[in-house]
Amino acid sequence: MVKAIRVHELGGPEVLKWEDVEVGEPKEGEVRVKNKAIGLNFIDVYFRKGVYKAATIPYPPGGEACGVVTAVGPGLTGRQVGDLVAYAGQPMGSYAEEQILPADRVVPVPPSIDPTVAASLLLKGMTAQFLLRSCFKVEPGHAVLVHAAAGGVGSLLCQWANALGATVIGTVSTKEKAAQAKEDGCHHVIISKEEDFVARVKEITSDNGVEVVYDSVGKDTFEGSLACLKTRGYMVSFGQSSGAPDPVPLSAIAVKSLFLTRPSLFNYAATRDELLGMAGEVFGNVQSGVLRVRVNHTYPLSQAAQAHEDLENRKTSGSVVLIPIPAVPNEMDVSDCSFQETLLS
């Protein structure tokens, strides 16, 4: 038996339960992995609330982790006990000390990349990769708007788009997050609680608008995002942290012949070759210094509910990682720097 988080009913962070589970042995085409670090992503919140539907209830949440292979299924080649691997996406179940995974969905992690970084990076990094390179190919001279620029994906989008030669405009909610976005390559930062982001984007672009908007916020920003686009611009809606956007009539995007997409990573990393190519580019950009991963918050896996609450309340920036260690006393501040250093040592 190992410890894991399970969800027996949809709802708030309190539905995340810390339980004993049976892992078993890997079958043909599978590996068993002992997780060292687990990535927390907003999609985990969507599943917990029922915005996205889990295949079954109860279900084990989480879709990103890095760990060591402890067993391989019969006849499997290419993976072996002791390998450091990471995965992102399906199947769900990463909120666990150990888990069984399809061998073709795990990727090797370079020795120079810490497991905590890998666990915080793969899903967000591959998301940034396909958003910037496939959904819309960002090139030098383009102007891009990134909402939630200090978030996990937003931070990577800003750094990568800047490296590609784009003019990066980011929206954030606080002055502290604005400072981080600047460090991450934003040329212009808009504090959305203090400024009208549509008016500021028009001002920054001399009323021309941007080539592409990357919007993970949804309801609160969607219409404004459309207004920020230039003629034949691309609206990339890849999240809805504020709720689902209202329906949009085709006439709303016909005025400027806009392109609108609601992409999913899983459709861009459907094959083994696609997965390895995307992961390789992400890890390569970390090794070369193009991407700096901000693991700003770590929590014990047993305190996943607190991590979810902080994420939803916009108390976090950068990436959030869960560490599979025994629970700590309630009075310990899980956001304390000394605690984070203990977790990562």
Automatic annotation (TrEMBL):
<dbReference type="Pfam" id="PF08240">
    <property type="entry name" value="ADH_N"/>
</dbReference>
<protein>
    <submittedName>
        <fullName>Quinone oxidoreductase-like isoform X1</fullName>
    </submittedName>
</protein>
<dbReference type="InterPro" id="IPR011032">
    <property type="entry name" value="GroES-like_sf"/>
</dbReference>
<dbReference type="InterPro" id="IPR013154">
    <property type="entry name" value="ADH-like_N"/>
</dbReference>
<dbReference type="InterPro" id="IPR047618">
    <property type="entry name" value="QOR-like"/>
</dbReference>
<keyword id="KW-0521">NADP</keyword>
<dbReference type="Pfam" id="PF00107">
    <property type="entry name" value="ADH_zinc_N"/>
</dbReference>
<feature type="domain" description="Enoyl reductase (ER)">
    <location>
        <begin position="11"/>
        <end position="322"/>
    </location>
</feature>
<dbReference type="InterPro" id="IPR036291">
    <property type="entry name" value="NAD(P)-bd_dom_sf"/>
</dbReference>
<keyword id="KW-0560">Oxidoreductase</keyword>
<dbReference type="InterPro" id="IPR020843">
    <property type="entry name" value="ER"/>
</dbReference>
<dbReference type="InterPro" id="IPR013149">
    <property type="entry name" value="ADH-like_C"/>
</dbReference>
